[in-house]
Design goal:
By secondary structure, this protein is α+β, with helices and mostly antiparallel strands. The protein is 37% helix and 21% strand. It has a single domain (5-146), classed as Muramoyl-pentapeptide Carboxypeptidase, domain 2. It has helices spanning 15-19, 22-27, 35-56, 68-74, 95-108; strands spanning 8-10, 13-14, 61-63, 87-91, 113-118, 125-130, 141-146. A hairpin with a 2-residue loop joins strand 1 (8-10) and strand 2. It starts with 7 loop residues before the first strand and ends with a strand. 30% of the residues are buried.
Length: 147
């Protein structure tokens, strides 16, 4: 069944996908974006996630919107762009695919922040990408981080 446009931020990214959180479910934390955060999520999907999907096929979002309570519960930074609906974390199945995603975004798309993150303890990798809609300026800041 095709989702209605009210349930979608863009052709391939749903509201549910961009606010889903296993941690929020486990802890009983409400994780609903407001109107401004929803528009930010829509712009992130249209300007960054859709072009990435069109180039590489299906991508998996592991974290999109986070309420303040959820952000605190997972130990997110106090000023996380996830809380404003401006950021998403993308699952990276392996380093080669992660590099292709990273380079495509870095050299092709407008973005605010792009982080290729590696967790040394378990080898987990993900891309954090953010987008700010006008009048905000997108910094185009890209870096690799090991945590």
């Amino acid at each position: 069944m095709r989702k209605t446009t009210e349930e979608m931020y863009s052709p391939h990214f749903s509201k549910q996908e961009m606010q889903r959180s296993g941690m929020a479910i486990r802890l009983g934390i409400e994780n609903q974006p407001g109107r401004e955060e929803e528009e930010n999520l829509r712009q992130l999907c249209l300007n960054v996630l859709e072009p990435l999907r069109m180039r590489f096929g299906r991508i998996i979002i592991t974290s999109g919107y986070r309420s303040n309570a959820l952000n605190k519960a997972i130990g997110g930074t106090f000023n996380s762009q996830h809380m404003r609906g401006e950021a998403a974390d993308i699952h990276i199945p392996n380093e080669a695919i992660g590099r292709r995603y990273y380079l495509f975004i870095k050299h092709t798309l407008v973005f605010d922040q792009l982080l290729f993150e590696h967790r040394m303890r378990n080898g987990c990798m993900w891309l954090h990408v953010s987008f700010r809609q006008p009048p905000h300026h997108n910094r185009g800041e890209a870096m690799e981080m090991t945590i």
